[in-house]
Design a protein that fits this description.
By secondary structure, the chain is α/β, with parallel strands linked by helices. The chain contains 19 helices and 12 strands.
């Protein structure tokens, strides 16, 4: 079957993760996604040491996660010849994705207001740190700062009295990238059916605010939402917690409606004597008597008597929503993830095979998309320029002047 976005061309003028992950999604769906880079390349190419990986341009798992199935051209946009080549490329595009700061886009004449005059059908997609308006619109934004810190994760989602949890890159970015992709697809549908372009914008901060929406709204009222960060023992309900097992692992349960689950859960953990306890049930009584912490401690004591493998059949038989808190190695070997095509085993040119992660949205008729490694800097530059009408002599001259950069594989 054909891919949904075959025939769509997307120009990606973006660095790092959030905007690039939107482009990756489009590439998986068949769009011709052309990434524009400088000769130095996207800084994301060089993040391996902070992730505990070897710094190797030929085996760059993070780069591939965000940029698989794309093509790349490296242009010096400050050179008029390079700028002209960029506009010739944009002449053929349906979508522009960027995460450049607004001031930089304006200086380069690439802001939406300027481009929509020349390209009235173009879908202009921009991802920022804090949004395009307000006093902090020009601040640099990463997911650690704009998403996790300002968006409430680091301060709220920690045990009271402790430091914020250890963040890892990509969590906020991927969320924002999929939000941006959703907006792009809606705008692209309009462009194709009505001939009308649109500007699509989202940001790390705005996405975090939306994600935290339930508790941000709950903070309108006096209650638990105004008390975060909390000690989990003092939460509103004791059943949405992680329990330490005999083998020093953690099992997370989720029973947002305490009253529905109380009797079968308390029986499943071996405290049948408490099933009809009128102090612990229903939840409003438990809260009014200040016994939520007591129930929490009872459950924790019980969980420490058995291992994960002993608890698993018990919880499954009682139909309790639970999951083992897995580490990344366990995720990489998770049979459930394998069964749902979450992974691709990439064989790199150096002979190593590494397990990579696929995007989470699947299309049955299209099938599982191919997984082509992300391009080297400017790898497809000459072929892209030829598609735009440049001849070999012009391409050679652009390379000699430094307007066009093409990565040379020194291993050959």
């Amino acid at each position: 079957m054909s891919k949904p976005l075959e025939g769509v061309r997307i120009v990606e003028l973006a660095t790092f993760i959030a905007a690039a992950s939107a482009g990756r999604f489009m590439a998986d769906l068949g769009a011709d996604v052309i990434k524009i880079e400088s000769a130095k390349g996207d800084p994301l190419r060089h993040t391996a040491p902070s992730e505990g990986r070897p710094l190797d341009m030929y085996e760059n798992t993070t780069w591939d996660l965000e940029n698989a199935n794309k093509r790349c051209i490296s242009l010096n946009m400050k050179d008029p010849v390079g700028k002209e080549a960029f506009f010739k490329l944009l002449d053929t595009a349906d979508v522009l994705i960027t995460n450049w700061r607004v001031q930089a886009l304006q200086r380069a004449g690439l802001d939406y207001e300027t481009l929509k005059v020349r390209y009235p059908k173009l879908v202009y997609a921009i991802c920022t740190g804090y949004g395009e308006y307000g006093p902090d619109k020009d601040l640099p934004g990463f997911d650690f700062t704009a998403f996790f810190a300002r968006g409430g994760y680091f301060d709220s989602l920690r045990q009271r009295g402790t430091v914020p949890f250890n963040g890892v890159p990509g969590l906020g970015d991927h969320n924002v990238g999929m939000n941006l992709a959703a907006g792009i697809l809606a705008a692209l549908y309009q462009a194709k059916t009505k001939g009308v372009g649109e500007k699509v914008e989202t940001s790390l901060f705005e996405s975090a605010v939306y994600n935290m929406g339930m508790m941000v709204q709950a903070s309108n009222y006096e209650g638990i939402a105004q008390q975060y960060p909390i000690d989990v023992r003092h939460g509103a309900t004791p059943f949405n917690a992680a329990w330490r097992t005999k083998d020093d692992r953690f099992i997370q349960t989720c029973m947002p409606d305490y009253n529905t689950y109380y009797k079968k859960f308390i029986a499943a953990i071996g405290r049948e004597d408490l099933v009809d306890n009128e102090d612990y049930f229903p939840i409003l009584t438990c809260q009014a008597k200040g016994l939520v912490t007591e129930v929490y401690d009872i459950v924790m004591e019980q969980f420490q008597k058995k291992t994960v493998e002993e608890w698993r059949p018990i919880l499954e038989a009682a139909d309790i929503p639970f999951a083992l808190c897995q580490n990344w190695i366990e995720i990489r070997n998770d049979k459930q993830a394998e069964a749902n095509n979450c992974f691709y085993d990439m064989k790199y040119s150096n002979g190593n095979t590494r397990r990579l992660v696929r995007l989470p949205v699947k299309f049955q008729e299209m099938g599982v998309p191919e997984y082509n490694a992300g391009p080297l800097i400017g790898e497809q530059g000459p072929e892209i320029l030829k598609e735009l009408g440049y001849d070999d002599a012009q391409i050679q001259e652009m390379q000699e002047k430094g307007t066009l950069f093409v990565w040379k594989d020194e291993r050959k």
